[in-house]
Amino acid sequence: MKFNLNINQVVNDMLQAALPHLLKVGQQASTFASHEFQQYITNIEHVQTMVEEKNVTRQEAQFLVDQYKMSMKAVLLTVEGLGVIATQKAINAAIDILNSALNTALGAAFKTIKFTI
Amino acid sequence: MKFRGLLKVNVAAFSVLLILTLLSCAPIQLIAPYDERIENGIKELQKNTTEFFVKIERQGGSNKNDYKNHVKFYDNSKVSTKSLLIRAGATAQNEKTEGQITSLMDKYKSLEEQHKKIGLTLNTIPSLESSFDQIFRAILTLEVAKKELIDKKKGE
Known about the structure:
The structure holds 2 protein chains of 2 kinds. Chain A has 2 helices and no strands. Chain A has helices spanning 7-52, 58-111. Chain B contains 5 helices and 2 strands. Chains A and B meet through helix 1 and helix 2 of A and helix 1, helix 4 and helix 5 of B.
C-alpha cells in the first residue's frame, strides 16, 4: 500500500493557508487597538484640561475617567476576541488543507487495497 | 497463506479506522458564533443612549431633581442590557461578549448614580457620549468580526 502524502509539502501548504488569516485579522486588531488607545489618551487629556480650566469638578473628572476605563475594558476584550478569531480562522484553514491532502492520499492508498481474503 | 489473509484483513481494518480518525479533523470553534440579536440589541441601545444625551444637552444639562424625568431611560437600558447578558451567557465560548456587556451595564449604573446624586452638567455630556460611543463600537466590532466567520462558511 502506497501512501501518497508528502508531509513537508502538506505542512508548508498548511502554513501558507494559515498565515494570511493571522496577518489580516492581526492587522485589523492592531488598527482598531491603536485608534482606540489614541482616543482614550485624547479623552483623558481632555478631562484633565477641563479640570484645570475648572469646567468640571474633581468628582466629575473622576466619574468621567471611570466611564472611560469601563469602555476600555470592552475595547481590550475586542482586541482579545479578534486574536481568537484570527487563530480560529488560521487553524481551520490549515485543517482544510490537511483534510484535503489526507483524502487524496487515502484515496490513492485505497485503490491498492484488496479487500478480498 | 493464512498469515497473508490475516494481514490483508488487518490492513483493511486499519485503513477504515484511519479514515474515520482523519475524517474527524472537523473545523474547530474557539469563539461563540455571531448573534444577530446581540448586534441589533446593541444598536438599539446606542440609539436610545444618543437620544438621551441629545435631550440632556438641549435642556442645558440635568440636575439631580431632573433625574426622576429620566428614570424610564435607565430602566429600559437596565432591562435591555440584562436580556443581552443572559443571551450572551447562554452561548458557549462567549465570555468576551459577556464581559463587554457587563462593562456596559456598569457604565449605565455609574451614569445613573451620578445623575441621581450630583446631576449631569452640560460640560460632561460630550465626554460621556464619546465614552459610550467607544464601548458600543468595541462590542459591534467584535460581533461583526464573528459575522465574517459565518459569511466565510457560507461562501465555501
